[in-house]
Specification:
By secondary structure, the chain is α/β, with parallel strands linked by helices. It contains 16 helices and twelve strands. It has a domain of 258 residues: Spore Coat Polysaccharide Biosynthesis Protein SpsA, Chain A (Alpha-Beta Complex). Helix content is 51%, strand content 17%. The chain is globular and about 75 Å long. The N and C termini lie far apart (61 Å).
């Protein structure tokens, strides 16, 4: 027994060292790459995008299920985007609230009849409503409830343009987001998908894609998540992007080449992690068919989204995320350590298995077993302090580096006061919040088969004044 506990302790220590090294290197390479990116952004010639005759039209697909609280704010912001040609396609996925009626009444949509070509599998359309607002056509599709993935497939079928943007119904785009996200497609025709930078809107008053003020108070649970988002979107995603091995484009915002998405078979409706599922399918589709491709990430293409403000909602979200991760990794297990898939199979997939999928199990076991080993006399005090110190130190340094770089790159979103608050939060999250999130993620394994298709709703609030 002592030998087993000793080996477990050594394993936990090695695991934490590797975790820390991976994040430190991710931050380092992210800083280098982002610095180059923003220097290029500063000095590049924008004539291509400012020329109204030179652009790629985009279909914005917004799946909506019981989103009457935020849907109008979201559409209003989309109508104010600074982009020459785009359409807005709202997919009402069998909502039981007033989502559909609110959209129809607000924008005066009229029922139309037109055929829909079934390019990818989706449930049947029940009604179509449309109207042009200025130069932007708003289309509302009412359909039987089939989930977010099925709604996105319907959006692909009904959309008119070669690129489509998947957008959550509670998300708000900045005015220049489309212009920035389309750049990789215009610069390189091998680009099949691009992700953007998701920021948390709970702290701000946002109207028409612009921050017009800050709310008086920000809940502690929101502050913890702000630090998490900075760490995620400014570290590992940037470094994986360098190797063309990103496995996730956030479901909140992603721009895709429609023909490639159709070739990959569209979204899978039997998963709650449709965002990761689509990206892995694009990788495998292109590699199997020997298509030269690129999946990118644009760090200054900003999408504002709401995060849970209640622990009950946070639990739903983290369970769903981890269940989606589990489904996608299991479905595409053939990629794991497969040289045919290059960095996708030999780097990114391994990372997601050991440092995302299994992380909550290993972290929680380590936090329990190491102090227990000390208590029963199988571990000396120095080793226990070293382990816990590494855990806290690496988390804190990575978070502070992400906050600092976020402040440097996006000076308009973090004040000095907020920056100092977030640095304090970076330290505090090591003592309870991370462990709580690990427990929520771990619960995704419990009743996996029973709950694997559930899409639990999270409470939404108005983002405007």
């Amino acid at each position: 027994m002592e030998d087993i506990i000793y080996l477990l302790n050594v394993f936990f220590m090695i695991y934490m060292f590797l975790y820390a090294i991976i994040f430190f290197f991710s931050i380092f390479f992210s800083i280098v790459d982002l610095e180059k990116f923003f220097k290029r952004r500063k000095f590049m010639n924008n004539m291509t995008l400012s020329n109204k005759l030179n652009y790629m039209p985009i279909s914005i697909i917004v799946p909506a299920y019981n989103e009457e609280v935020t849907i109008i704010e979201s559409i209003d912001s989309l109508l104010h985007l600074d982009y020459p040609e785009y359409e807005i396609v709202i997919i009402n996925d069998g909502s039981t609230d007033g989502t559909s009626s609110k959209v129809i009444e607000k924008y005066g949509l009229k029922r139309v009849y037109r055929p829909i070509r079934k390019l990818v599998n989706s449930k049947d359309c029940e009604e179509i409503f449309e109207k042009a607002i200025g130069q932007v056509t708003i289309t509302l599709i009412n359909k039987e409830n089939g989930g977010k993935a099925d709604s996105l497939n319907m959006g692909i079928n009904v959309s008119r343009y070669p690129l489509f943007l998947s957008l959550d119904a509670d998300s708000v785009l900045q005015e220049d987001t489309l212009s920035k996200m389309v750049e990789p497609f215009m610069e390189d025709d091998k680009t099949v998908a691009v992700g953007g930078n998701v920021k948390i809107s709970n702290s701000y008053v946002i109207e028409n894609g612009k921050i017009i003020g800050r709310k008086p108070k920000t809940k502690l649970i929101v502050l913890f998540q702000i630090v998490e988002y900075y760490r995620s979107f400014l570290s590992t995603r940037v470094s994986f992007n360098k190797m063309n091995s990103n496995l996730i484009i956030s479901g909140a915002i992603g721009l895709f080449k429609k023909q490639s998405a159709i070739g990959a078979g569209g979204y899978e409706s039997d998963t709650v992690g449709e965002d990761m599922e689509m990206v892995i399918k694009l990788h495998t589709y292109c590699i199997k068919n020997r298509i030269d491709y690129n999946i990118g990430y644009v760090p200054d293409a900003v999408c504002w989204t709401q995060v849970p403000e209640k622990l009950s909602d946070l639990k739903k979200q983290r369970r769903r995320w981890h269940m989606g991760l589990t489904q996608s990794l299991w479905e595409h297990k053939y990629v794991f350590i497969n040289p045919r898939y290059g960095a996708v199979g030999l780097v990114a997939y391994i990372y997601y298995v050991f440092f995302e999928l299994l992380a909550p199990i290993i972290e929680l076991l380590g936090i329990v077993i190491i102090p227990l080993s000390y208590y029963i006399g199988l571990l000396n005090f120095d080793f226990m302090v070293l382990y816990l110190g590494i855990f806290i130190l690496y988390s804190f340094i990575v978070s502070v580096a992400s906050i600092t770089f976020e402040s440097y790159l996006f000076r308009n979103t973090i004040s000095l006061k907020m920056g100092l608050v977030l640095i304090g939060i970076s330290f505090l999250e090591c003592f309870g919040f991370r462990q709580l999130c690990s427990l929520y993620r771990l619960s995704a394994f419990i009743g996996y088969k029973k709950n694997k298709l559930s899409w639990e709703k999270i409470t939404r609030v108005h983002q405007g004044r």
